[in-house]
Amino acid sequence: MTTNPVALITGASRGIGRGIAQELAKVGHDLVVNFSSSADGARQTAADCVAAAKAVGKTIRAEICQGDVGKAADRERLIAFTREQFGRLDLLVNNAGITSIGRRDVLEAREDEFDALMAINLKGPYFLSQLAANWMIEQGARTPTSATVPEKPSAADVGVRAPCCGGYRPKIVIVSSISGYAVSTNRGDYCMAKAALGMMTRLYATRLADHGINVYEVCPGVIASDMTAPVKEKYDKLFADGLAPIRRWGTPEDVGRAVTALALDYLPYSTGETINVDGGFHVRRL
Ligand SMILES: NC(=O)c1ccc[n+]([C@@H]2O[C@H](COP(=O)([O-])OP(=O)(O)OC[C@H]3O[C@@H](n4cnc5c(N)ncnc54)[C@H](OP(=O)(O)O)[C@@H]3O)[C@@H](O)[C@H]2O)c1
Known about the structure:
Layout: E1 6-9, H1 15-26, E2 30-35, H2 39-55, E3 62-66, H3 72-86, E4 91-94, H4 111-138, E5 171-175, H5 188-208, E6 214-220, H6 232-240, H7 252-263, E7 273-277
Parallel strand pairs: 1-2, 1-4, 2-3, 4-5, 5-6, 6-7
Helix pairs in contact: 1-2, 1-7, 3-4, 4-5
The structure holds NADP nicotinamide-adenine-dinucleotide phosphate (NAP).
NADP nicotinamide-adenine-dinucleotide phosphate binds near residues 17 and 37.
């Protein structure tokens, strides 16, 4: 069994998932890099992560694992793979997701496309989190007492072990989207799935608090990735016009750094919380 903390990241063959994996690697997490169809992309992520860790003097292992989060058998296999390869799980990052398949107006949306999106973007995270949470409980996650309240990680701790004096303090992160509250009438299914992930975060946060498992929603704004590449020009202009107070695209690294702060237990007394990684997009302005 590894002594590094272990993170399982869904949809880490490219984009935001890859950014999260790289940042976690730099603080010494072993990784399970999940993908759906891009095996080469996943291999690249794993190689990049090992190199990124090495560059800061850490040794990590990154293994790739194919699996469609929308399928029950694949979710079971992902957890079994993590168990076999590493013997522990400290962090599940539910990142995999697809955009609205037909991008149809709500008046023309199709049921088959709706079902396909919901399977990946909502049912997948809900039931993968269930599997992970049950394993985390089995591994001994329990209520922190005053003696086990995590201390701020010291430089020496970071990347060596899960940096908390109470021992095992696993976490679950759910990647939602500003589309969970900002309407796009041609992506109703995507918006609704992302909105539901907010409630899912609060459900699991409440249920798992007695086990010392914190659960967070990470809510990215507009992030440069394959998903947003087709709308690059539109958002270049919107950012220039002040779409968000911070006038630039977000990057996968921005999201990865936020997830890393959570993984390192910098928010031990916060759970069910939404961490906006959106350049301030969510701030209402007059
Ligand atoms: N980009 C944005 O602006 C933005 C903003 C807010 C939220 N988000 C959310 O952030 C997450 C990542 O987005 P992204 O921009 O990085 O997207 P992306 O570049 O399209 O990458 C999607 C990732 O998810 C994987 N994936 C897709 N379907 C899957 C399935 N059924 N099972 C397992 N993995 C699957 C893909 O694997 P393959 O490579 O194998 O297909 C890929 O690794 C998504 O949940 C998205 O909704 C994105």
